[in-house]
Predict the 3D structure of the following.
Amino acid sequence: MVINQSVIPPTKPDTVSIILDLDLYIEGLDLRTDDEIWLRLEQIRQRKNQYFEACITEKYREMIR
């Protein structure tokens, strides 16, 4: 997992705009079937979502709902 974050110019006054880039990867996979590939992609997506949730606060979570 590589996490990059950047502050960018805000779109509204009195706010902060942040880019959160989560790059999750696995090396050395030997996937032979479409089903194996889709299963692994789903596992990676779930893990990415776990990391994202760990990076944000409850207040922010409420703002994006």
